[in-house]
Design goal:
Layout lengths: L17 H19 L10 H14 L3 E4 L4 H13 L3 E3 L7 E3 L13 E4 L3 H4 L13 E3 L1 H12 L7 E9 L8 E7 L2 H10 L1 E2 L1 H9 L6 E6 L21 E5 L4 E5 L4 H4 L2 H17 L2 E3 L2 E6 L5 E7 L6 H5 L9 E6 L3 E5 L5 E4 L4 E5 L9 H6 L5 E3 L2 E3 L4 E2 L12 E2 L5 E2 L13 E5 L16 E2 L2 E5 L9 E3 L3 H9 L2 E3 L11 E3 L12 H10 L10 E5 L19 H11 L6 E4 L2 E4 L13 H5 L3 H19 L5 H15 L5
Parallel strand pairs: 1-6, 3-19, 4-5, 4-10, 7-9, 9-11, 14-26, 26-30
Antiparallel strand pairs: 2-3, 6-7, 6-8, 10-11, 12-16, 13-14, 13-15, 16-17, 17-25, 18-24, 19-24, 20-21, 20-22, 22-23, 27-30, 28-29, 31-32
Helix pairs in contact: 3-6, 12-17, 16-17
Length: 649
């Protein structure tokens, strides 16, 4: 019995003349490309890349192959094609902005159809105790994966162009960067990948000059329903058979059936996090779901921190924060993914492997994130937001449209304020170049990365969890990351407002067994002469007895950064010990001008934490079982011991 049902095993017959027709086209395409001696001629590609393209052309049977050079001219042609096919519309209110409306069945990542494929299940996912269901990823055997791929990809690109996208995750001149090549039959994906990653001939040149011309192989098709019926011709997809597969052993990604960002922009979650985390483990570094920001204090001392938050915590808002504290400056390096490692001096250094922001639109406004609002109205592809009659966009939380301006919702239907349905899809997005951010850090694309002095974990915790606390040491910090939980909104595939485990904010993004991942994090402390960063947990979302937020958040979070910098700078008398870690002393936390309940914000209720410790212990022992590192088991025991001897007044 297979472990997972991979969908209807309906075989799509190979279009009869597909292969022969392709072979004719291919010869023609190659000879014309040869004539112009373009680097983008398939025949002139580095051998391994050419092999990858040709093998998949034979399988997918596109009617054309186009190697992307990343140029403006190429992008313009693709934009024209997308407008003609009705996939995107122009937004004349802004410069070079477009709106795509997806199929209603293709609006989000699909975790239940996302798999890590390995020989042994235990390499790919945590193996829970007894009959408990694994909560951190799905496994599929390599045999099952190959069968599922064959069932879906044979002939799937017939009548379409296969685009070959050479891209770099990270600056091209950085030793931390990695190259990928994505094959796709979606021009929307090409245009989006060009915003989110570094695409173009420079990547091919680097592949050409490299000894091993190593690259991650990413194959993507929006698919073609077995019925042959395409519901939305402007947004073809195959939601019934959507599948996102990762083969860490081969550094391969295969994605079928969805054009939506998280499933189709394969450099992001699939490469930079899932495959990335497995490469990072092999090579001794970390690929994490974190923002990176630089913070300068009034004395001009600059530090960089990274922060991992589950969804709906405002990670992008934090990455672009405008500090309220006088004299402070925050600059943005990245809002979603970090690749980091200790350099030869033992300093942790980080790069943002991305080139753009793929942010949730609803909730983004002049009050929640003015910096994002200054970033996204040029050279941006919006997906599933509402459209205004003056050629602009609209979403929930955005300032109301001007009088006389009407709105069409994300489905293209007329919409008025106060409607029972939202104007924009809750998961609607902007896809925008990072270098347009007015507070982008001067070192955001430095090949050597930026030095990291603190790691923040966080969550949406209405009860019990202080605004900020600091780990006692590295092992305790790893335990705090493993214990992360957050109040889920009704977003994604989960309903209600349950508080869900989301260790390291990586629950949907682990590329291998979470127990081994914990061991990998712990192993950072065994490296010779490394300066381990301090680790923190933050919670902007604690509520009082009336259910009101106790902390104003947003720019006021600079006060939390201020305290963290004091700690990083080893300022004396800045912390007091609690069973869960260090919390600020009243003198060391700058709450000047704020009317907040300091004691309430920082209290560590014994009963709550005794219950929390038990619940977290159950989760970790049940989910990770045999692979739970001894150090983490010790951390659980130590926490419970500290709570037992905790005297409250
Ligand atoms: O992004 C948020 N941040 C981080 C900002 C740098 N949000 C939005 C979360 C949804 C994506 C927040 N929401 C934050 C926050 O710090 N805090 C809150 C909760 C909150 C909401 C409104 C108020 C206060 C707190 N309003 C008033 O106090 C008036
Ligand atoms: Mn993310």
């Amino acid at each position: 019995m297979p472990d997972f049902d991979v969908g209807d095993a309906q075989y799509v017959p190979l279009p009869r003349d597909c292969l022969r027709q392709y072979q004719r086209n291919f010869v023609r395409m190659q000879s014309s490309a040869n004539e112009t001696k373009k680097l983008t001629a398939v025949s002139l590609l580095p051998a391994k890349l050419r092999e990858f393209v040709e093998e998949n052309v034979r399988i997918c049977c596109p009617s054309n192959v186009q190697v992307c050079d990343g140029s403006d001219a190429e992008n313009q042609l693709l934009v024209n094609k997308l407008i003609e096919s009705g996939t995107i519309v122009s937004l004349p209110k802004y410069k070079n902005c477009f709106l795509a409306r997806s199929s209603v069945k293709d609006v989000a990542r699909v975790e239940s159809r996302t798999f890590i494929c390995t020989r042994n299940r235990r390499d790919a996912v945590n193996v829970p105790r007894g009959s408990a269901l694994g909560q951190m990823g799905n496994w599929m055997s390599l045999e099952q994966a190959d069968k599922a791929i064959e069932e879906r990809f044979v002939g799937c690109m017939a009548g379409r162009t296969m685009y070959v996208i050479p891209f770099s995750m990270g600056p091209l001149n950085s030793p931390y960067s990695k190259i990928g090549v994505q094959l796709t039959d979606s021009a929307y994906v090409v245009c989006s990948m060009r915003i989110m990653t570094r695409v173009g001939t420079e990547v091919l040149e680097k592949l050409n000059s490299d000894q091993d011309s190593y690259f991650v192989k990413a194959l993507h098709s929006v698919g073609r329903p077995a019925s042959g019926q395409v519901e939305h011709p402007h947004w073809p997809c195959d939601p019934e058979r959507t599948l996102i597969l990762h083969k860490p052993e081969f550094d391969e990604i295969v994605s079928y059936g969805s054009g939506y960002g998280g499933n189709s922009l394969l450099g992001k979650k699939c490469f930079a996090l899932r495959i990335g985390s497995t490469i990072a483990r092999r090579e001794g570094w970390l690929a994490e779901h974190m923002l990176i920001l630089g913070v300068t204090d009034p004395k001009g001392r600059k530090r960089y921190v990274v922060a991992a938050f589950p969804s709906a915590c405002g990670k992008t808002n934090m990455a672009m924060m405008r500090p309220s504290l006088p004299g402070y400056k925050v600059e943005c390096v990245g809002d979603d993914i970090v690749w980091m490692r200790f350099d030869q001096h033992g300093q942790l250094r980080a790069i943002n492997p991305e080139f753009g922001f793929f942010g949730v639109a609803p909730g983004t406004s002049g009050s929640t994130n003015p910096v994002a609002m200054e970033t996204i109205f040029e050279n941006t592809i919006f997906t599933n937001v509402a459209q205004t009659s003056d050629g602009g966009v609209y979403w929930e939380g955005m300032e109301d449209p001007a009088p006389g301006v009407t709105v069409k919702d994300w489905l293209g239907e007329p919409w008025v304020p106060g409607s029972s349905t939202p104007a924009a899809h809750p998961n609607s997005r902007f896809c925008t170049p990072a270098d347009q951010c007015p507070i982008i850090d001067e070192h955001w694309a430095s090949p050597e990365g930026v030095p990291i002095d603190a790691i923040l974990f966080g969550g949406r915790r209405p009860q019990g969890v202080p605004l900020v606390y600091e780990a006692f040491d590295w092992k305790h910090g790893v335990f705090i990351g493993a214990s992360m939980k957050s109040e889920a909104t009704a977003a994604a595939e989960h309903k209600g407002k349950a508080i869900m485990h989301d260790p390291f904010a990586m629950r949907p993004f682990f590329g291998y067994n979470f127990g081994h991942y914990l061991q990998h994090w712990l192993s950072m402390a065994n490296k010779a002469n490394v300066k381990l960063p301090k680790v923190y947990h933050v919670n902007w979302f604690r509520k009082d007895k009336e259910g009101k937020f106790m902390w104003p958040g947003y720019g006021e979070n600079s006060r939390v950064l201020d305290w963290i910098l004091r700690r990083v700078n080893d300022e004396p008398n800045t912390a007091q010990v609690t069973p869960i870690g260090y919390v600020p002393t009243k003198e060391s936390f700058n709450a000047t001008g704020l009317n907040v309940d300091f004691d309430g914000l920082f209290s560590v209720p014994k009963e709550f934490w005794t219950e929390e410790a038990k619940e977290v212990a159950n989760f970790l022992y049940e989910q990770v079982d045999q692979d739970l590192p001894q150090d983490i088991q010790d951390q659980i025991k130590n926490l419970i011991d500290r709570l037992n001897s905790y005297q409250t007044n």
